[in-house]
Design a protein that fits this description.
By secondary structure, the protein is an alpha/beta fold. It has five helices and twelve strands. The protein is elongated, with a radius of gyration of 18 Å. The N and C termini lie far apart (62 Å).
Length: 204
């Protein structure tokens, strides 16, 4: 029986690397796969899954309007798929996650999703929330905080390295970047940034 998997982690935990390794393992055994990634993430080129250690693969792009059940089912009829692999799964909609579960349940195709659990404000992404709710298997991939503890949070920082405590949930490109941290240091840096903003407002 095929399953729906969710491999989740903070930034820099090797999610894309793990996905590409899984894809390689299937293809090395002569099995067909289908790769997907979020259309909005074009940091390394649209329709590409790229790991920080230099691995790269072409992928289909999904956006909020993508019908993953129809697209994968059509491809499965052309070439029997052994696995579907989804990068940036946090950007899936709830309906798309349910469509992926249907692929596992009705088409008997294993679906492996890789993504962030929470955003820079510690809120769940919609796709991640749905996957945490219905995936058959939840697998945490490990990253390391600057203090050496396990990193579970994603701190957004500006060009000067200061924590960003407000803004849109999704920021692709721009000057901001993300740092994986343990909860203790994530909370401490966000409190310090919020206090600095409050002091600046009081002095204005």
């Amino acid at each position: 029986m095929a399953k729906l998997y969710f491999y989740y982690a903070s930034m820099n935990a090797g999610k894309s690397t793990t996905l590409l390794q899984a894809d390689f393992n299937y293809r090395e055994r002569g099995m067909e796969t289908m790769l997907w990634t979020a259309a909005l993430d074009d940091r390394y080129g649209a329709g590409q899954i790229t790991s920080r250690i230099g691995l790269l693969a072409e992928a289909h792009k999904f956006d909020p309007e993508s019908d993953l059940w129809a697209a994968v089912s059509d491809e499965h009829r052309r070439r029997p798929l052994a696995c579907v692999l989804i990068d940036e799964a946090q950007f899936l909609s709830k309906d798309q996650v349910f469509a992926l579960a249907r692929l596992a349940d009705e088409a008997d195709i294993p679906v492996l999703c890789y993504g962030l659990r929470t955003d820079f404000a510690a809120d769940l992404f919609p796709g991640s929330a749905a996957l945490l709710g219905i995936a058959d298997a939840l697998v945490e991939l490990k990253a390391v905080c600057e203090c050496g503890r396990k990193a579970t949070m994603n701190l957004r920082v500006d060009a000067a390295g200061r924590a960003v405590v407000a803004g849109a949930q999704t920021e692709i490109g721009g000057n901001d970047r993300y740092v994986a941290m343990c909860r203790r240091h994530f909370m401490a840096k966000r409190r310090a940034a919020a206090d600095a903003l409050q002091e600046a407002g009081a002095d204005a």
